[in-house]
Amino acid sequence: MIISFDKITQPINQELKQLNINLKKMVAAEHPILYAAAEQLFSAGGKRIRPIMILLIAKITNDQQNISPEHKRLAEITEIIHTASLVHDDIIDDCETRRGTVTVHNMFNNKIAVLAGDFLFAQSSWYLANLNNLHVVKVISKVITDFAEGEVQQGIKSFDKTISIESYLEKSFYKTASLIACSCKASTILNNCNPNIQNDFYRYGKHLGLAFQIIDDILDIISLSKDLGKPAGADLKNGNLTAPLIFAIEEKPELNQLINQEFQNKEDINKAIKIIKKTKAIQKAKDLAEEHIQLALNIINTRYTNYNIISLIKISYYILNRIK
C-alpha cells in the first residue's frame, strides 16, 4: 500500500504551516550564533511526525474535532524537544550530516552544538510550563530523562555483541518511542480524556515509536547516504548494534570478529553490511516493526471510529513503508 504523506496531513495542513512559522519564532535567541545554530536545525525540515500525531489525536479525542491553541503549542514543544535530542545525538555519534545538511557541531563546533541543544531543551521547558497543565508537564518532562537513559544504555552496550533484542527495544523506547508515546498521551490530557483513553494513545504511540526506530535502523543498513540524509552504516561505526545486526549474528557468527575489531575502517562496515544483506535479518527486523505497527493499530481500530483515525492508520503504514 503506497501512502501519500500529503494525504495523511490533509486534515491539519493549515496547522502544520503555522507550526513551521512558529518554530523559528520560538527558538529566537539574542546571540546570533545560537540563533543561527537553532535556525539551521529547523531549516533542514523533517516530516514533523510527532506534531502531526498530536494534532490528529487532538481532533480524534474532541467531540467538536477542534484543535486548541494548547494542542498547537504542545505540537511545537515536542518538535523542539525532538530537535534538541538530535543535536546531542549528532555530537555523540559525530555525524557529519543530518537531513542532508551539515550538522550543527560541524558547522560551528561541539561547544556551540551542546549549548544549542541545551538552549532548545530550556526553551521547550519554558513553553511547556506556560501550558499551565501540571499533568502534561510531568508526562513530557519524563521524556528528557528517558533520552539520557537511552544514550547511557547505548554507550554501555557499545560494540556489545551479546545485546539481546529485548535490550535493544528497551533502549529504542528511551531514545525514540518515549517522546512519541508521551506526546500522544499529552494530547489526550489536554482534551480532558479519561485515563483509559490516555493509556490507549500512550500505547499506540509507544508501539508506533518502536516500529519507527526499527525501520530507521534497517534503513541505516540498506539505504544510500544521499537517501538517508546522513552517512549510511553510522550505527555500525558507532558501535550501536541494532535489530538487523542482532538478527544477522544468529546466522553469520563471523560478524562477531568485525564487531570485536570495532569496524576499524570503512571496508569493515561495507563488509558487515554485505553479510547482513545475505541473511534473513532485514526481513526479521521488518517483521518485528510490522508486529509493533499491528499492535498500535489494534488499539485504535477496536475502540475509535472518528474519521481522523484514517490518518493515524495511514501514518502507521507510511512508517512501515519507508523501506522500498
TrEMBL record:
Pfam families: polyprenyl_synt
A GO BP annotation: isoprenoid biosynthetic process
CC cofactor: Mg(2+)
GO function term, MF aspect, one: metal ion binding
Coiled-coil residue spans: none
Lineage top rank: taxon: Eukaryota
Keyword terms, alphabetized: Chloroplast, Isoprene biosynthesis, Magnesium, Metal-binding, Plastid, Transferase
Family of this protein: Belongs to the FPP/GGPP synthase family.
Name of this protein: Prenyl transferase
Gene this protein is translated from: preA
